[in-house]
Amino acid sequence: MTSAVVVEHPGLLPGSLGTTRRHPRRTTRDWLVDSFCFLVSVGWVLGATADAASPDPLLAERLPYAWMVAADAWLGLGCAGALWVRRRWPLGLALATLPLTMFSMAAGIPLLVIYFTVVVHRRTAVALAITAAGLVTNMFFTLLRPEPDDSYWASTVWGVVIALLVLAWGMFVRARRQLVLSLRERAERAEAEQQLRVAQARQLERTRIAREMHDVLAHRISLLSLHAGALEFRPDAPAEEVARAAGVIRGSAHAALQDLREVIGVLRAENSLAVEPERPQPTIADLPALVGESRAAGVRVDLRDEVRAADRLPAALGRTAYRIVQEGLTNARKHATGAAVTVELRGAPTDGLTVEIRNRWPVGETAEPIPGAGTGLVGVAERVQLAGGRLEHGRDGTGDFRLAAWLPWPAT
């Protein structure tokens, strides 16, 4: 019966699941498993040889010639030693040892280990082909090494059962390893995707903060330029007025430097968690202070606020309106120095919010123009588009420059 076991299973070694691995490094677990398989195989070879050479006819399984016992023992030891390389050449080793399954009792356990390795580490089609070949050789084994107490068919059936059990066990182990590998790859992929999402979110946040700071800095620097220009063109101004303008310039410069320091710190930070919390963003309620800054710089600004239910205005919508007005005032100071500016806001829930900034088109040469990147209106257009609104800018029928935006304002 044990002979039948040996016969049917040539095999392969553990490698990769369905694919060939290039000389994988043997782990501690692999060393332990291989050592155990080798020792069990050697023990089986010694036990089977002792039984075959026993003088007791009830224990001995006599071979026609005495030298066959020794030859079978050497074949069994050779197969046991081959277990150390079965991980590298599984299929080749299985095919090379396949003829031994027809007659060798001593090589039974090593051949089963090789066969199990094939099932675990090779495709199902390969495993089934090796199994079919082993079942054929098992039939010859039962003829050449018959069991004294069992019939031919009983021994053959036992060999088939053992082969199928090893096949089922190997396929289960392979399926489990594939599942574990798939779950590990999925977890690694999910972790990589999460890191990518975090990096993208961090980059988007830094870009947003940089855009916000661009708007703020452009506004403050335009105020600085306006005050400095007033001092340049009025060197005979009263001392109190000069001191007041100098104080405004100093305060605006200090605020601009603080804003610049913050945005550079954000863009340089490797870990967004290390950045200090962002300052509260301005909303429509901060528009009077923004207009006050421009008035303090000498710009004539008329603010008309006709917004109904302003307390229900979403914060994001109010922030967008604030940035539109800020950009409009900055452009007026840059390109229409001395011109009066009208800022008008009107709207209500469900009707939408309309923001309009209007100033006279400059006539003749203006003071030295304030340099700019020319991307302010592009940024405003992007904000309005993200909010789902519409933006218009340019000269209207009266010749004024008009910057107008409509933003949707949901009822809830």
Number of separate domains: 2
The residue ranges in which pLDDT falls below 50 over 5 or more consecutive positions are 1-21, 271-277
Return the structural class.
Answer: alpha+beta
Which oligomeric state applies?
Answer: single chain
User: How many beta strands in the DSSP annotation?
Assistant: 5
* Biggest β-sheet description: 5 strands, mixed
> Can you write the helix and strand succession as a string?
HHHHHHHHHEHEEHEE
User: How big is the Rg?
Assistant: 44 Å
Strand content: 5-15%
Q: First CA to last CA: what distance? A: 82 Å
Shape: rod-shaped
Please state the average pLDDT score: 76
Helix content: 55-70%
Number of helices: 11
Strand order of the largest sheet: 1-2-3-5-4
Q: Notable features of this structure?
A:
alpha+beta, 2 domains, 60% helix, 11 helices, five-stranded mixed sheet, disordered N terminus, 412 residues, rod-shaped, Heat Shock Protein 90
Explain this structure:
This protein has a 5-stranded mixed beta sheet, covered by helices on one side. The chain has 412 residues and is α+β, with helices and mostly antiparallel strands. 33% of the residues are buried. The protein folds into 2 domains: 2-192, no CATH class; 283-412, Heat Shock Protein 90, CATH 3.30.565. 60% of the residues lie in helices and 9% in strands. The protein starts with a helix and ends in a 5-residue tail after the last strand. Mean pLDDT is 76; it is low at 1-21 and 271-277. It is an enzyme of class 2 (transferase). Pfam families: HisKA_3.
